[in-house]
Amino acid sequence: MAAFIGIGVLRHMLYRLIFWAAVLLCLSQLLLTLWRSDRPMAMKSSNINTRMILQNMIDFHIARTTTPPYESLLTVEPWVDKLSVQSEKLIMDQVQKRLPNLPVTYWNQNKNKAMFYKNESCAKFPSIYELEFNNVYWQSLQTSNGSFHLYSAYYDVRKLSRIGPAVRILGMINRIEPTVKTHCQFWFDDHKQPVIVKIMEYKYIWYKKWGNYKQGIFQPYLIACQIPKSHHHAVPASVSLVENVCDKATNNLRVVYNRPAVKKGFAVCVKGLDFLYEDLSVRLVEWIELLHILGADKIFFYQLQVHPNISKVLDHYESVGRVHVTPLTLPGGQPNVPGFQHLYLTKKVNHKRQNELIPYNDCLYRNLYSYDYIALLDIDEVIMPIRTRTWKELMETVMVKALAIRNETRASYNVRNVYFLDDLIHTHGWFKTIPKYMHMLQHVYRSKNYTKPNQYVKCFHNPERALTLHNHFPLACLSQGCTSYAMDTADAHLQHYRADCVKTLKKTCTEFRQNSVIDTTIWRYKRDLISRVSNTLSSLGFFPAI
């Protein structure tokens, strides 16, 4: 009897469960039907996934509960940025910062004046709105025999220059050994007429044996125009390059002449950074801090495309005055689309090398009178003093030795290259007293042997002597030619931090790896460097909250 009663109770509970399940199913079906009736037809597709349905339900709920009544919308005013509307003067100030080669100030002072040569149809002063720009930072000239893309112009009054006061224009021309005759139209303050001279030379910033020696490929050049004796007392405000004397110019470059009252010691120039997909921000902080410890007064970066974290680092150091960053593009028909530009430079190595000569030489001429020495370095290279602690002490020692051999200053002072390869540390393990993120402090095993003399070297360049620069050596010099003093490896060397040797040294790279030694010279800066780097990384938010 008890068993029969128990079965009855269970049956009753089962009936109730089925009943309420049916009720819930009906309610859910009803709610789903009501919801679907309020959705657009596109939402009734059968292939909508669960995540999309959930998101749409949330959006629908928010829309129904947050949209204000229609009447209130008649008086409400949406939030817009009303502070961005600026005067023409403020806009022009911003333009000048972004386009330093544009003579904005001079043009503003003279835009309403009648300025021309002989008559109004000859060499009329060009409006900045009528110039031909190319890829943002370049100005162009189309001639009967070649296209010119001009980057910047500089006033050169160095004592060793045999041509006297001159303006040198840096740019690229799609001709080898250009034959087209062109002219410089100089514009001076308080002059309504231009001073017009024939160009003196096209200085090729490349060796034809390196390749790409073909018509139609943009080649790097330094164009020289002498300033007439009648105007040796004045610095041109701007210069235009034209084919014929009376041509109305399609370019007008501000003439750069930076001459501070006090000259500093060392500037470092870095070619166009191309690290869009590689976050080298932490290593960059270590490199910048080490160079400042060694004595770099300022580092001049040129930037193509970089990772956002690298931008964060550069913005920080620029805000405190330690670095200067100049945006850069490739001229002509070369790609500037992020990503595609990187692939182009990877595949077109000679094009890459030729383009690099523009920022290198721009950096030289912008700092011609500001520093005693200029070094062209990559962010994986450090000129390391061995017997001394700073670059200043190093050069004081080197100058005594160099002058003892020949009593004249050299165009450059070079150091030999030695590899600190990444995988050498893996054989020996990490140093526990040094943070792992300190790449250079951790990697103190290097190849025993140096690369050959005069191969892959880097230099301290003498701005009084250098005319054009290449990555490793000056290509052309003033006075006695491109003399270079090779520093003894006991005094200094180039510490080159790489994952592998350059491609041309693949055969000898095995030997470099098999014969390694420990070199802890960098550890003399360990405490200071770790402190500086860690504080900077912390202030920029690179460390997780502890």
TrEMBL record:
Lineage: superkingdom: Eukaryota
GO cellular component: cytoplasm; membrane
Originating organism: Acyrthosiphon pisum
E.C. numbers: 2.4.1.-
Any Pfam family: Glyco_transf_92
Keyword hit for Transferase: yes
Enzyme class: transferase
Keyword match Transferase: yes
Name of the protein in question: Glycosyltransferase family 92 protein
Single GO molecular function: glycosyltransferase activity
Segments traversing the membrane: 17-35
InterPro entries per UniProt: Glyco_transf_92 (IPR008166)
Membrane topology, as annotated: Single-pass membrane protein
Family named by the database record: Belongs to the glycosyltransferase 92 family.
Keywords, ordered alphabetically: Glycosyltransferase, Membrane, Transferase, Transmembrane, Transmembrane helix
Entry's localization field: Membrane
